[in-house]
Design a protein that fits this description.
Layout: E1 10-14, E2 31-40, E3 46-54, E4 61-68, H1 105-108, E5 114-119, H2 135-149, E6 154-163, H3 165-176, E7 181-187, H4 193-198, H5 206-216, H6 226-232, H7 238-241, E8 254-259, H8 266-275, E9 281-286, H9 290-294, H10 297-311, E10 324-328, E11 336-341, E12 350-357, E13 360-362, E14 370-375, E15 384-389, E16 394-398, E17 401-407, E18 415-423, E19 432-433, E20 454-455, E21 458-463, E22 495-500, E23 504-508, E24 513-519, E25 543-548, E26 555-560
Parallel strand pairs: 4-5, 4-6, 6-7, 7-8, 8-9, 9-10
Antiparallel strand pairs: 1-2, 2-3, 3-5, 10-11, 12-13, 12-26, 14-25, 15-24, 16-23, 17-22, 17-25, 17-26, 18-21, 18-24, 19-20
Length: 564
């Protein structure tokens, strides 16, 4: 994180050609740079923001607001340089004026927009205590939006954009329905802090929460200790309910984007889109890493078209955009990007049930009772794999579900991690590179040459004692677990468990294989290896056993979608 430079209230003109340093992108137009504008909320708390807008523009313009704890003024959290190949974002692509995971004023001021970088309550110089997501963020967002809309240069139309925390701040603010918020673009935004980040599947994710708390957030006031909260309140409770962001009453236009590569965003982003009440909503699931996607020129142009329509009233045929576009990964060839659908999951999805057998997946129930075990407390252990070889090209899009009969002789609980992997015709298990090949150095010849920037496959995780479901909120393909109680199992007892997978989009050619993998830790590349413990924290002990055949009808349901 760059050294903090205390800002004071000032207004400057940054001239065309200005650069933060010789490595950064120069400005293509004059920009008015208003630093440390004070927004005084109804409770007296002072929030600070920066506004960067085109200079010399006579007409009033709309504003795009980004709210997060990641700083402004060109300082704050920034991890692009820590990622392999800067995740496809050369330093010269950005001006250094952008907030982490938000739009660059150097790109958007020439397009006729003001960029508003807001330090959330309790971060940096903003007053009050910092709350990690939740309803307070939305209530503050309402007041911030209305304050910006009333400024003399603003046309009264506000949009919001950005990834991750900036996306969740859009969900929570739009829920409050501020009149001046006309459209949002939540890209990669979780909706349920407990189920998607802090305790997915009932398994505490303390390493990631510690990373967020200790490596990304700065402030001079108190802040909510979400790590301690999870340790003291590991079951779902009203505390976590406040951080479960509903989109059911969001009616304004929204352009939602998601990827497969994120270990924390995929499910919630899609859920937020599906549950939103808006009649003008669009979903794009892409094939690359989220930050690369955020700053790609084609996506920037499309995002402008969306905001031009709803913040400037431009009649540009945006409504003709297909409601849902899905990228399908091949893993060894170029992804099949932007496949059009009317809804998600696609209406023509054909769900197929596969049954576990000896190291394989078969299409009919198995009579013979058998089992497979794997060592669950050793990261180096061989996983349990069940393989299906396709005899024709097959495309999977959407949600999958496994029902397994499991036991553990060594303890009364199990943390079960599943993944759906792809293998080539020779049996090699594949990885998808989250950057286009053309963005990689010339010496990169294979996926093995790319460290920690790959997608392995869709995952599903669940703690056995959290297996209870709410039948009113579960569907045939997406189980809903309340996580409000523990149901331990006597060692050696065989019980059934249903585990839902996060969205996937994978195409298999004839001779290629789908692998259902079970193991004692999450099957994924580590996005921040320098900040993550070498061994995940879980309660696994000894061997896990999966039972199948006869009365133990362990199965996997996959979503097959015919493509033209």
């Amino acid at each position: 994180m760059p050294a903090y430079v205390k800002q004071t209230r000032s207004t400057d003109i940054l001239p065309k050609g200005w650069q933060k340093n010789e490595k950064k992108r120069p400005l293509s137009c004059d920009i008015i740079y208003d630093q440390n504008i004070v927004i005084t909320l109804k409770d007296g708390t002072k929030i600070y923001c920066d506004v960067l807008r085109p200079h010399g523009v006579r007409e009033k313009i709309p504003a795009l607001v980004g709210m997060s704890p990641y700083g402004k003024g060109g300082h704050g959290f920034d991890i692009y340089g820590n990622c392999p190949y800067r995740i496809g974002i050369p330093e010269s692509k950005l001006s250094g004026l952008e907030k982490f995971e938000f739009l660059d004023p150097a790109e958007w001021a020439p397009r006729g927009y003001a960029i508003v970088n807001v330090d959330l309550r309790g971060t940096w110089e903003s007053e009050g205590n910092l709350y990690i997501e939740g309803s307070q963020q939305g209530r503050d967002g309402y007041e911030i939006v209305e304050f910006i809309a009333a400024l003399d240069w603003c046309n009264g139309s506000i949009g919001m954009a950005g990834n991750s925390w900036l996306a969740t701040s859009q969900w929570s603010t739009a829920f409050e329905q501020p009149p001046s918020l006309k459209a949002i673009a939540p890209w990669e935004g979780f909706t349920d802090m407990y189920r998607e980040i802090a305790c997915r599947g009932g398994i505490p994710n303390l390493p990631f929460l510690n990373f967020i708390m200790n490596k990304t957030i700065r402030g001079r006031r108190g802040r909510e200790d979400i790590v301690k909260a999870l340790q003291t309140s590991p079951l779902y409770s009203p505390y976590w309910e406040d951080k479960n962001l509903s989109t059911a009453n969001i009616k304004i236009p929204m352009y939602v984007a998601a990827s497969y590569s994120s270990a924390i965003h995929g499910f919630g982003t899609v859920k937020g889109y599906r549950h939103a009440a808006s009649q003008k909503k669009w979903l794009r699931i892409h094939s690359t890493q989220e930050w690369y996607d955020l700053y790609h020129p084609d996506n920037t142009d499309e995002l402008q078209k969306f905001f031009d329509r709803y913040l400037k009233g431009v009649n540009n045929d945006w409504e003709k955009t297909v409601p849902v576009r899905v990228s399908v990964l091949t893993f060894h060839k170029k992804a099949l990007d932007n496949r059009p659908f009317s809804e998600y999951p696609p209406k023509n999805t054909q769900y197929k049930k596969l049954f576990l057998s000896e190291s394989s997946l078969v299409t009919a129930p198995v009579d013979k009772i058998s089992s497979v075990s794997y060592q669950a407390d050793d990261l180096r252990a061989v996983p349990a794999d069940f393989k299906l070889v396709f005899d024709e090209t097959t495309t999977l899009i959407g949600f999958s579900k496994a029902r397994l009969w499991v036991s553990c002789a060594d303890t009364d609980d199990m943390d079960i991690y599943l993944s759906i992997r792809k293998a080539d015709k020779n049996g090699k298990v594949l990885e998808h590179i989250n950057l286009p090949w053309e963005e990689l150095p010339d010496d990169v010849k294979s996926t093995e040459d790319v460290p920690n920037a790959n997608y392995l496959g869709a995952t599903g995780v669940l703690r056995l004692s959290h297996r209870a479901q709410d039948p009113q909120r579960s569907s045939d393909i997406i189980p809903f677990h309340p996580h409000d109680k523990e149901e331990k199992v006597p060692p050696g007892t065989v019980v059934s468990i249903e585990i839902g997978f996060w969205p996937l989009g994978i195409q298999f050619e004839a001779g290629e294989s789908l692998i259902l993998r079970a193991q004692g830790s999450l099957d994924q590349c580590i996005e921040f290896p320098d900040h993550t413990k070498s061994k995940p924290d879980n309660l696994n002990k000894g061997k896990h056993t999966i039972h199948f055949g006869g009365k133990y009808e362990s199965s996997l349901i996959i979503p097959i979608v015919p493509l033209n």
